[in-house]
Amino acid sequence: MRRAPARSALLTLLLLVGGCAAAPDDKPGADPGPGAGDRWRPKPGTDWQWQLSGRLDTSFDVPVYDIDGFDHSADTVAGLHDDGRKVICYLSTGAWEDWRPDADEFPESVIGRGNGWEGERWLDIRRLDVLAPLMAARIDMCAEKGFDAVEPDNMDGYRNRTGFPLKAAHQLRYNRLVARLAHERGLAVGLKNDLDQIPALVDDFDFAVNEQCAQYEECDTLTPFIDADKAVFHVEYEMETDDFCPESRRLRLSSLLKKWELGVWREAC
Asked: Beta-carbon neighbour count of residue 176 at 10 Å?
């Protein structure tokens, strides 16, 4: 979730999802998925472009594009692949969005408070019985379109006012479920924000995506990913590049300055 300018009983068994038996998602790295050795694993310092709004501009000479999974077709992904790019599928996994084509499939009982963005509301991530098949279907879509990885957003609901009594343990279990669903489909997966749980989750995720760690003086908390030779894709919105790029280079982050709407414009470190 793009931070707004103002900072913002578990099931014992999972459903069988996507034809695969559920793994114990509360254990680190519980299921690496098929072909784990062949999965894309971006390295620290990998340059990227993140565009979630406006007409997609594919002209940037960068090896990674992160784009909306619903808004773009398999042909768009194939075109980026033809240009030698890896492509990340942006999805919201922790919040409901009223404009998505599957919005009516989410029962009202799992939809909570607004998360600060118009049309978005937090999900009750304790309800794995409801959310696991819905998220599996979304990640299936990413795989069928040919994406290389998933960027699951809103992965830190337990730190926010969601309307549900979410705890850290609920978040760990849910985030590991999302990672497992991606890995079962041969996709890499990034941990979005959720800084406090990085030590527990770094083994479950292939890279990290972070917003505003420099503004809030939190970038050092991402070093477990760098130490594990995993990329950290980082963006700032309210700083100048001269104020955060030197530290980003020291930490080997893949840093961009972007505008809040996450359109075409970018300024890389």
From this structure: 24
Nearest to 170 by CA among 155, 188, 182, 153: 155
Render pLDDT for 79-103 as a digit per residue (tens, 0 to 9). 999 999 999 999 999 999 999 999 9
Largest CA distance in the chain: 49
**Ordered domains of the chain (ranges, CATH):** 46-268 (3.20.20.70)
pLDDT at 38: 86
pLDDT digits (tens, 9 = 90+) for 15-35: 333 333 344 566 666 555 555
Helix residue ranges per DSSP H, 36-185 = 74-82, 128-145, 168-184
Contact predicate 157/8, CB 8 Å: no
Written as one string, the DSSP assignment of 186-224 is T-EEEEES-GGGHHHHTTT-SEEEEESTTTTT-GGGGHH
What is the pTM assigned to this prediction? 0.89
